[in-house]
Write a structure and sequence with these properties.
11 helices; Aminopeptidase; elongated; binds zinc ion; six-stranded mixed β-sheet; about 375 residues; single chain
């Protein structure tokens, strides 16, 4: 990586402080620490950094820009500062390397993406940096569906021409051109308790209603269209001889077609209003929602620029449409040309096997930088 003015060892030294801090979404102090590190980096290259606070339960958001006075951005880069790992993880598992890969919480998802974004913009030729207005948005809660930062990201995306998300490239090197939508619900059923032996007729079983929901909604799963429903958690009841008055379920829905999701959502609301058992009260809480994003005309143009940038450096760009959501869903579904997977290659995310492929760091950094340079040439005012 001599063409980047740093060695892999130096890169890893720079990465380590971003990994070895507990910064799960619900550890705002740790996420703030990441924000401090990133703030210092961007300020060191003369960019303006502003901090956005959302909720005390999560850390801050950061917006770094080379054009503080810009009303619109040519390019919005997105990365997240949180991980899925709870407090206490670092004491048991911190960053290691073995010459080919690095391991550790967030090493691919997505601390190396944060670092690559910074390095790519800081290495831009001066005339390109002059010409382009760029903002880098880093949010604190992507791993819970950007519940708090989603509107902030969307409002900035609405002022941007292109959005590049630097989540890790797939293990086979592919970038991400489409992501499934997702919605997560907590569903609570309140019935009426009664002795199962003496007066079962006086009870209203929350578990029976829950079972009705499961069997009814499971029929909405269609592997062909990609709309799938999963009841991942159920709870309810107390003991065997009492008609259960409380039950709850967590429902996860994935979809390619946003209209099909709307249809399923309507069905869920109808079921809430018309329970199969009289007297049941049903509470529905949508805890996360990201619309599906699929390429439009603008993103095809963006993809072509990325493919060309890869070709120029002998890197064959391949694309995947994937089931997992990211912040690309938020901006892509607004119709803003969006591509994801512009970080280094990694895998086994959200597990203790998470890894980062060391020899992908340099090429993916060069790719991101070249994409910015090539985009600057397509933008006319
Ligand atoms: Zn991620």
């Amino acid at each position: 990586m001599s063409d980047h003015n740093f060695t892999i060892e130096q890169y890893l030294e720079e990465l380590k402080p971003l990994i070895n801090v507990d910064c799960g979404t619900w550890t705002p102090a740790g996420v703030s620490q990441i924000a401090d590190i990133m703030t210092e980096k961007y300020q060191s290259i003369g960019w303006q950094v502003s901090r956005q606070s959302f909720d005390e339960k999560v850390g801050p958001g950061l917006l770094a820009t080379n054009k503080p006075e810009a009303e619109e951005y040519d390019i919005m880069l997105i990365g997240h500062m949180d991980t899925v790992f709870p407090e206490g993880t670092i004491a048991e598992w911190s960053m290691t390397t073995d010459g080919e890969q690095a391991y550790g919480p967030g090493v691919a998802d997505m601390k190396s993406g944060l670092l690559n974004m910074f390095k790519a913009v800081s290495q831009l030729p001066e005339d390109v940096a002059d010409r382009l207005s760029i903002c880098v948005c880093m949010n604190p809660d992507e791993e819970i569906g950007s519940t708090y930062s989603g509107d902030w990201l969307k409002s900035i995306a609405m002022k941007s021409r292109y959005v590049l998300v630097a989540e890790a490239a797939r293990a086979d090197g592919s970038l991400v051109k489409a992501r499934k939508g997702l919605a997560a619900y907590k569903i609570e059923f309140k019935g009426k308790a009664a002795h199962a032996g003496n007066e079962p007729e006086k009870g209203i079983s929350s578990i029976t209603e829950l079972a009705h929901w499961i069997t009814t909604l499971n029929r909405e799963t269609n592997f062909e269209t990609g709309t799938t429903l999963n009841f991942g958690v159920v709870e309810g009841g107390t003991v065997g001889n009492v008609v259960p008055d409380y039950a709850s379920a967590v429902l996860d829905i994935r979809f390619w077609d946003n209209d099909d999701y709307t249809r399923v959502e309507q069905k869920i609301h109808q079921m809430q209003e018309n329970p199969s058992l009289q007297g049941i009260e049903i509470t529905l809480t949508r805890e996360a929602h990201k619309p599906a994003f699929t390429p439009n005309e603008g993103s095809e143009k963006l993809m072509a620029v990325i493919e060309k940038s890869g070709q120029d450096m002998g890197l064959n760009i391949t694309w995947q449409a994937v089931g997992g959501g990211s912040d690309a869903n938020l901006t892509g579904s607004l119709g803003i040309p969006t591509v994801d997977g512009l970080g280094p290659i990694g895998g086994a995310m959200h597990s203790r096997n998470e890894f980062l492929v060391l020899n992908s760091i340099g090429p993916r950094l060069t790719l991101l930088k070249n994409v910015l340079i090539n985009l600057s040439e397509t933008i006319t005012r």
